[in-house]
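Cysteine sulfinic acid decarboxylase: structure tokens wanted.
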Amino acid sequence: GITGPFFWSFLIFLKSQFCQITVITVIVHLLFLQVCEWKEPEELTLLLDLELRATGEPQHKLLQRVKDVAKYSIKTSHPRFFNQQFAGVDYHSLAGRFLTESLNTNLFTYEVAPVFVLMETEVLRGLRQLVGWTEGDGIFCPGGSTSNMYAMNLARYRLFPDVKSQGLWGLPRLTIFTSPESHYSVKKGAAYLGIGTDNVILVKVDDGGRMRPDDLDEKIKLAKSQGSVPFLVSCTSGTTVQGAFDPLDRIADVCEKHELWMHVDAAWGGSVLFSKQHRHLMKGVDRANSVAWNPHKMLVAGLQCSALLLKDTTNLLKQCHSANATYLFQQDKFYDVNLDVGDKSVQCSRKVDCLKLWLMWKAVGSDGLEERVDKAFIHVRYLVEQMKKREGFHLLGEPEFVNVCFWYIPPSLRGKEGKADYQDRLAKVAPVIKERMMKQGTMMVGYQPLGNRVNFFRVIVFSPLVSQRDLDFFLNEIERLGNDL
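Answer:
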């Protein structure tokens, strides 16, 4: 079995390879020639033999199970995996993940997790400093959606603290404001917290998908006139589809005018704060009350690594969420009980997510992370330049971030934009190309409609393993898969 000696030997091996990025890149290319090996669900179920039985299996069979899991899973570390806002994993972070899984630590009290309580505090401080706060609070959450829900709960508690003990019955109708291009977790959070999805007011966006502060102001006034109580504005820094950044400074003016909690969902775009060249995209973020940021996305810290950062210095997290369990959070301990951070969380058991980011940050420094961000922008500029040289590629607009949205127009549709069935035919192109690339295993890229715009591709370019050669392949492969449509 994979016991202690094996684990530590593997860690030593990893340590010896930390400087061998080219070796790891070659391994990825050699071992994972295909992004996926597609099988239909029925066939895959039989291949994996998923049934659980009363008796165990011998080791040689278990090893085959492990090989099959790897073989038929999507290779998200492949440089031609452009499908999601996560791709690959930094090898320092991977070593950290092996370590935390082996230690099996629960991050709720100092007595159980002394190293990680201090480490989480320091990593959160470093992230807050990039936002522009010298003080504050925060917590690592199981994903950006949860971070957004935390922000809603904190904003409501600040305004109506009795909700914690008395529930929803005494509350007025509360309203949240966000853009139609914000993450779907805003509506999910409103449903989960009993606010209601009908009370999420969608603010108009400009042509680039950025929230319009003038419409935000008007909609807040309208909500007040109709008897509801606005309490939170959820901005987005790096929208999921177009990668748009809401104008935070101007939104902050509106929030201050109406005394609303300003939350910034920077799960995707927050990492631009490492870059002196690109951090202007989040100008005004220091005026927010809370920020959600996922280093497991652009910084490739590995799933999951999601932080909620707060400007608050009044211990609002603990006041809002504490249950004061006396078997766990005794107040007469022999050390500073403020180090027992578990009562800030809505969870009890909480994984250690700070080590993977801390170890990577230690290894490459802020300069290395800045270089990683800047390199992604360079790749995007190259990809866009190459698209403009090819007849079949049509951009939705100039990308603001590392999301490149485009239609591929096959030869049969070129010059036929005026035809009545053009949009219907164009809408079918991306799904067919996606099916072909998946079944051939050559690469992965997502597609979607947006508003009145029919299906288009959204290629996400940020993995440190991506090269210009991979981007050239991407364009060639789209053409190869779609030219006969």
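The radius of gyration is 24 Å. Residues 271 and 346 are 26 Å apart (CA to CA).

Cheers.
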